[in-house]
Design brief:
Distance between the termini: 18 Å
Radius of gyration: 21 Å
Structural class: mainly alpha
Number of domains: 1
Shape: globular
Number of helices: 16
Order of helices and strands: HHHHHHHHHHHHHHHH
Largest sheet: none
Strand content: under 5%
Length: 434
């Protein structure tokens, strides 16, 4: 273990301490949660990074996801032809790629993976996997059955995971509602994960395995940090109870595929709308900040950064150093993590890929840690989506959901950073993992 591994390990507890300082009730924080939550993360990460069997399993999973992704591009190439060819690829008729086009190359994979997940749910495979994770979380972390089930579901699904505990939403405590929002924003759904893999796979060959690991590792981190920000002061209805997922099963496999494909299209439209709105608004904010900042810099004779991204980068710079990222890369990675809060992880992963292509990142460990830190829906737009989605299922709790939303976003952001610390603790420069 070198110095940066030690810094990453200490960063886990620095983040937990920061969460405790922001807690709504510091006296009610249960430190047992931190021990078990971090323990689960460390055991899983050590298996992947340090043991040959774990590394081999990691590479098998990575190759399987990349193979599925290659199959997913068949439909987009048929529909969009040359537009769907990734950079450097050629088509059957000798066509050459026009470069990377997000809408025609990456977005269509969301539809494919939505359909694939629907098949796994239809045959009950995902429900069995989710129940295993749920039992682990409820047994070791002492959280309610409903919280454990939602956390396990969010490893693979998005806002729709709240449907698995719909009968219990009306009677959940504020702490449980915060947990539902936190685990949703700290993890990513499988279909959107495919988008990130497609964006980064040419520059980061093992990105699929790392993102899958990140989503798993972030679930216990989200449970821990949610309970730090909004500790449990009541007795949950499902405490100590094994909750069975509530899943509506379609009448046929083909119906499941159709519904999933339509869901995937809606996800693409939603992401596109968010990017159009948020990128435009941030550009407008940058114009205003640049105008004001330029005037002040000219008046004071300074050169203070004035863009929205630069300001967020400065805010997250100390956290980035705590992740165990070398100072040579800390400024760039801090900017990526900071802009994710407002621009979404889609933009941040695109910029990470561009930075790798331009060889702007000096140390491989910086890229690995950044991939883990960015793997989550922890941004303002997602907070609105999750609050709105859950509130639609239980309108009577809208006020409570809104009241814990900001704390949930903070907890989710810290959970992603904690997961990055765990990855940084065990990353040793193994060429097989980059």
């Amino acid at each position: 273990m070198d110095l940066y591994n030690l810094i990453s390990f200490c960063g886990i507890f620095l983040l937990a301490g920061f969460a405790w300082l922001l807690s709504a009730d510091r006296r009610s924080v249960k430190w047992r949660l931190l021990g078990w939550g971090v323990g689960i993360q460390l055991i899983f990460a050590a298996f992947i990074f340090l043991f040959p069997a774990g590394t081999s399993l990691f590479l098998v999973a990575n190759d399987a996801i990349v193979t599925l992704l290659d199959a997913a591009t068949s439909g987009s190439r048929f529909l969009f032809g040359r537009l769907a060819l990734p950079p450097g690829a050629t088509g059957g008729a000798g066509e050459t790629s026009l470069g990377f086009i997000l809408a025609f190359q990456a977005f269509p994979t969301i539809v494919f993976f939505s359909a694939l997940m629907a098949i796994l749910y239809y045959y009950g495979i995902m429900q069995r996997i989710i129940r295993v994770f749920s039992r682990v979380f409820s047994s070791f972390l002492g959280v309610s059955g409903a919280e454990s089930l939602v956390a396990a579901s969010n490893i693979f699904a998005g806002v729709e995971s709240a449907l698995t505990v719909r009968p219990f939403l009306a009677t959940m405590t504020r702490s449980e509602l915060c947990t539902i929002l936190t685990v949703g924003m700290a993890t990513v759904s499988s279909n959107v994960m495919a988008l990130y893999v497609f964006t980064l796979k040419s520059q980061f060959p093992t990105i699929a395995g790392h993102l899958m690991s990140a989503s798993i590792l972030s679930a216990p981190a989200a449970l821990v940090l949610s309970k730090f920000l909004v500790p449990e002061t009541d007795r949950p209805e499902t405490l100590g109870v094994a909750v069975t997922p509530v899943v509506e099963r379609e009448s046929s496999l083909f119906e499941a595929i159709i519904n999933a494909a339509n869901t995937g299209i809606r996800v693409i439209v939603g992401i596109s709308g968010l990017l159009l709105a948020v990128l435009g608004l941030v550009a407008l904010a940058d114009l205003l900040l640049s105008g004001i900042g330029g005037y002040l810099n000219a008046l004071l004779g300074t050169a203070i950064p004035c863009t929205f991204r630069d300001i967020l980068g400065l805010v997250f710079y100390p956290f980035t150093l705590a992740l165990g990222i070398p100072p040579e890369d800390a400024g760039l990675i801090a900017r990526l993590i900071g802009e994710r809060v407002v621009l979404t992880e889609v933009v941040s992963y695109q910029e990470l890929s561009a930075a790798l292509a331009a060889k702007q990142i000096v140390h491989p460990r910086s890229a690995v840690i950044a991939a883990y830190a960015l793997c989550g829906f922890a941004h303002v737009a997602s907070m609105a989506i999750f609050v709105g989605g859950v509130a639609a299922l239980v309108p009577g709790r809208t006020s409570d959901l809104s009241g814990v939303a900001v704390r949930a976003l903070i907890a989710a952001t810290l959970a992603c950073l904690m997961t990055a610390c765990v990855a940084g603790t065990f990353y040793t420069g193994n060429a097989l993992l980059f």
